[in-house]
């Protein structure tokens, strides 16, 4: 394939980690194993700019080559920028029996794609858009010859992940181009064998969870808070689909969160500036990568030159808009049907090289330099709070009310004096029906006692005690906005 169209511009249970001091200088940045392919592309691109041609050339020779574009006709018209199709297969040949048991990796591989992702690199190299395509998407597979049986098939409906099983990389590319109207420039394929080793090679990845996450199918068991995940634990995290009611769609968002965190770790951990570490990590990743013949040293270096200075805000993540998550098809079963009008607009934006996210208002100087905020499940602005002064200290109620309002809580602005004896420990009282809101409020007052009061209603009550010192700043989990519900990478890494 040609170079870019224009020269670019110059352990089974995760262990919690304490909050870091200060904010790191961050940098760039489905289902099941999608993060590792996007990571491979991103790391090679970012690392190539700082390591040099000789190292990248030696890595290039270790990539297994495929020809997914052979004899392809009637392809979509090329747009602006570069489009890379990344797919993940379930190869597990080199995973040990101990790892299979520890991380619930039993069963036979299906030799199909568990993940399909489309990565668009903008023509000016200032933006990377990652679009997750559900593996169970309803697809119209083009006419083709089955690679396994040699049988010729007419065009027919399937799930998207069946394209690889029937026709390998070429049929996968043809099917995705037919569904999206986006011309694919490059192809990357990785099995999940190297995933755990890659995460371990960079020293683990930090993930924040606003609520406990437990999945008996994968063995994932994370308490709410911040965790340093090893390779095996990270594998559980990106595989899990039974931690909430969102199934594969929720899993895609968690995988996007993981990708941003992994790239953040690599760019801030010295990997990209250290030739020895870069080579070690890259060799680990490339151990099971297959790519088209056109994606080589020159392409890596050209992209690297243009993408210097990337930050998490330069990357954006989105899942293809879905209209029906349980679209029944005779002979196939339940599929994921895209929202055709919205999906068409999404892929048109990629073809036209337009951003998918809505520009955020400029942050004030105070917010740029302010304290780090813990992530909570319920947005503070939706939580109504009545403050009481449970001490004889003049003005304490007003101070607590002002502090809670400053971090976003909807206080009454009319603190009251509590009845009874002086309170030594701050107390948070809540109706059990609002327990999730209570947990978010408790994160802002970590020393406070929580007490459920049936029938109290939707207003939470904070009675300040003698132990009160300050309110800890908190923020809600990222909310996806704009026409495509996309989110930038700086919204999905730990604060």
Structure description:
By secondary structure, the protein is an alpha/beta fold. 31% of the residues lie in helices and 23% in strands. Strands 2-15-10-3-4-5-16-27 form an 8-stranded mixed β-sheet, with helices on both faces. Strands 20, 21, 22, 23, 24 and 25 form a 6-stranded mixed β-sheet that branches. The longest helix is centred in the middle third of the chain and has 22 residues, at 247-268. Residues 1-13, 15-39, 46-51 and 362-369 have low confidence and may be disordered.
List the helices and strands and how they pair.
Elements lengths: L14 E2 L17 H18 L1 H8 L3 E3 L15 E8 L7 H6 L10 E9 L6 E6 L4 E4 L2 E2 L6 E2 L2 E4 L2 H19 L5 E6 L1 H9 L3 E5 L3 E3 L4 E3 L2 E5 L1 H9 L7 H22 L6 H12 L2 E4 L4 H10 L8 E5 L2 E8 L3 E6 L1 H12 L13 H5 L4 E3 L7 E6 L6 H11 L3 E2 L4 E2 L9 E4 L4 H10 L4 E4 L7 E5 L9 E3 L10 E2 L7
Parallel strand pairs: 2-15, 3-10, 5-16, 19-26, 20-21, 20-22, 20-25, 23-24
Antiparallel strand pairs: 1-14, 3-4, 4-5, 6-9, 7-8, 10-15, 11-14, 12-13, 16-27, 17-18, 23-25
Helix pairs in contact: 1-2, 1-7, 1-8, 1-9, 5-6, 5-8, 6-7
């Amino acid at each position: 394939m040609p170079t870019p169209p224009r020269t670019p511009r110059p352990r089974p249970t995760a262990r919690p980690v304490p909050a870091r001091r200060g904010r790191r200088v961050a940098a760039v940045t489905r289902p099941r194993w999608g993060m590792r392919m996007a990571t491979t592309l991103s790391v090679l691109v970012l690392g190539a700019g700082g390591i040099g041609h000789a190292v990248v050339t030696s890595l290039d020779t270790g990539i297994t080559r495929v020809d997914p574009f052979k004899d392809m006709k009637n392809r979509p018209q090329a747009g602006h920028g570069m489009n890379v199709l990344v797919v993940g297969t379930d190869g597990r040949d080199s995973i040990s029996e101990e790892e299979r048991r520890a991380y619930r990796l039993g069963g036979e591989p299906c030799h199909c794609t568990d993940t399909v992702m489309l990565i668009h690199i903008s023509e000016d190299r200032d933006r990377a858009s990652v679009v997750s395509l559900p593996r169970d998407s309803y697809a119209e597979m083009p006419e083709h010859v089955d690679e396994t049986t040699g049988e010729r098939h007419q065009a027919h409906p399937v799930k998207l992940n069946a394209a690889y099983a029937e026709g390998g990389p070429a049929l996968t590319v043809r099917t995705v181009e037919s569904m999206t109207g986006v011309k694919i420039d490059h192809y990357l394929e990785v099995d999940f064998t190297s995933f755990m080793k890659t995460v371990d090679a960079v020293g683990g990845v930090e993930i924040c969870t606003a609520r406990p996450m437990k999945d008996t199918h994968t063995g994932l068991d994370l308490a709410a808070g911040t965790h340093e995940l090893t390779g095996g634990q990270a594998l559980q995290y990106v595989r899990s689909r039974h931690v909430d009611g969102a199934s594969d769609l929720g899993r895609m968002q968690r995988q996007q969160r993981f990708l941003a965190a992994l790239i953040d770790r690599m760019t801030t951990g010295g990997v990209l500036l250290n030739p020895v570490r870069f080579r070690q990590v890259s060799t680990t990743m490339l151990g099971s990568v297959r790519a088209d013949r056109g994606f080589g040293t020159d392409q890596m270096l050209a992209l690297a030159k243009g993408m210097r200075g990337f930050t998490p805000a330069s990357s954006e993540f989105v899942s293809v808009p879905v209209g029906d998550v349980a679209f029944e098809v005779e002979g196939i079963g339940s599929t994921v049907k895209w929202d055709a009008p919205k999906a068409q607009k999404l892929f048109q934006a990629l073809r036209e090289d337009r951003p998918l996210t809505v520009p955020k208002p400029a942050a004030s100087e105070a917010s740029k330099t302010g304290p780090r905020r813990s992530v909570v499940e319920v947005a503070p602005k939706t939580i109504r709070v009545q403050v009481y002064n449970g001490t004889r200290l003049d003005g304490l109620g007003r101070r607590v009310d002002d502090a809670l309002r400053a971090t976003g809580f909807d206080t009454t602005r009319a603190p009251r004096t509590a009845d009874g004896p002086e309170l030594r420990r701050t107390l948070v009282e809540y109706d059990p029906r609002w327990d999730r809101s209570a947990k978010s409020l408790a994160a802002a007052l970590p020393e406070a006692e929580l007490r459920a009061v049936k029938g109290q209603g939707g207003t939470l009550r904070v009675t300040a005690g003698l132990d009160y010192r300050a309110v800890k700043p908190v923020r809600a989990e990222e909310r996806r906005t704009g026409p495509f519900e996309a989110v930038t990478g700086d919204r999905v890494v730990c604060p």
